[in-house]
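Handout, page 2. Input:
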Amino acid sequence: MSTDSPLYRLNKKHDISAPENSVPVTKLIRVHQPRNRTELFALFKSHVDCECECGIKSKGTIKDFGVNLYNAQIDEWGQHVFTLKECIQWEFDFFLLLSGFPNGNTIVEKAILYIRNFVEKHPEYQSDGFWAISKCTGNHGVDILVSPADPKREVYPFPTECYIKVEPKIYKYMEGSIKRVDETCDGLFNATPVFCLYYDEDSKFINFDNVIELVVNRSME
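Output:
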């Protein structure tokens, strides 16, 4: 998904996929943990009218968001350059990328697997379980916790606690209401760094080595 495409710019300018205008998809995933994209999009629909105890509300379905994108063309260009089908497909692809479900398993689970594989390939980080890597649950806007496997160990290197937030590459280019840390993060992680791990359209991590380096440097503080 190109950040230079007309539909991307249109969607961004009109805040069509902003959480308050659509659905806070990352928050929905963290709370309900859908196993695949079918379950995810079913959550979009079920959270339109129901009063779920999670408190999350959806402003519609993928089709609804596609219609909003389709109609925004009139305000922007005075005509429909793209068909309704193309707009619905664009929103489908956009939320699919945000969700991390392009290839089945969630992108967060893939990230955890990559980090664990890294540890296994580097003996200096695996003896006595230097790194403890776990998936975050709840509604705090972070995905992975990296912490000392044994907090009482005084032998380096082991990582002082830090968090990793897994986001699509396009997240780097978002502005305003689409790109924001969940309000529940405010004040919660001030003393604990949060590093962003980005993935591309093919679910490949584009800055994995950089994030690992940040975690390793954190371990040496």
